[in-house]
Amino acid sequence: MNKVLTMFVLAASACAHKVAGPLPSSVASLNERMRTAGGSFNAYSCEARITYFGKEGRAKGSASLVTAKPASMRYELHGPHGGTILAFATDGERLTMIDFKKSRFVEGPATPETIDHLIQFAPLHLSAPRWVDMLFGQVVIDSSATLSAEKDGWMARWIERGITREVAIDPETSRVKRMRASVGNDTLSEVEVRNHDASGLPTSLHIEVPASNVDMTIELRDVARLEELDPTAFVLEPPAGVTIERAEP
Questions:
Q1: What is the DSSP letter of 23?
Q2: What pTM was computed for the model?
């Protein structure tokens, strides 16, 4: 083997085993770096293209989304002819949903359990603030987390209410690459951020929930930053003639 080829092989081997750079000195430092990388705006609207594989089969759809920090979001799912068939909103404390096809109005506290119950296509075991963080491409790492530098980037792991949370962060950009929730060896959910825009917002999310056979991709389009939003935008009112139900935690 000549000298040039030897150097090439060694360089390729080094790249294949490349480990992430030095870790931030603390969880607080990592959280600050991730917050800065996520941009300075606090609200946006967009259109979402959804490709869904689940127990019911394969489906494609679109939705309008508005989200605002720290814990508010609203989406309207469109039918094949463009009309709204389902609307969901939360202000972080309360959640409301209107199912126009079934003439149902549901309201209740915004707990991870009730959010999972109403967002059945993506039961991620997340609170409203964590859902909003995810839609901004961010995660607040718990202060109890252990940090390590691995092939997949910087890794943060901690246990919360019996669930192991694992977050992979790109050392070069301080942006989230992947989020996983598990119990033992069983994955509850995994979210991969496949692409970001220049401001750090995720424009492509891949979501898997093995227990529900959910495999879903969300592509965000026509993103518009928003300055101020009326808080009432995140509280739906029941239309006339619907059945009102209570979502219990």
A1: P
A2: 0.85
Closest CA to 140 of 30, 230, 236: 30
Measured between alpha carbons, how far is 217 from 177 in angstroms, rounded to an integer?
Answer: 15
Closest CA to 217 of 205, 230, 231: 205
Query: From the CA atom positions of the chain, what is the Rg in Å?
Result: 20
| CA count, 13 A, side-chain hemisphere, 156 | 28
Report DSSP state, residue 22.
P
**Positive or negative CA dihedral for 63, 66, 67, 72?**
negative
Q: Which residues of 152-173 are buried (b: 16+ CB within 10 A; e: fewer)?
A: ebbbbbbeeeeeebbbbbbbee
Calpha distance 219→51 (Å, rounded):
9
**Tens-digit pLDDT profile for residues 193-234:** 999 998 889 999 999 999 889 999 999 999 999 988 899 999
Residue-range domain boundaries for the chain: 24-246
Superfamily of domain 24-246: Lipoprotein localisation LolA/LolB/LppX (2.50.20.10)
Q: Cα 84 to chain center, whole Å? A: 23
Do 122 and 214 meet the contact criterion of CB atoms below 8 Å apart?
A: yes
Write down how long the chain is.
249
Beta partners for residue 120, in sequence order? none
Under the phi-then-psi rule, with left for phi > 0, alpha for psi from -120 to 50, and beta for the rest, what region is 228?
Answer: beta
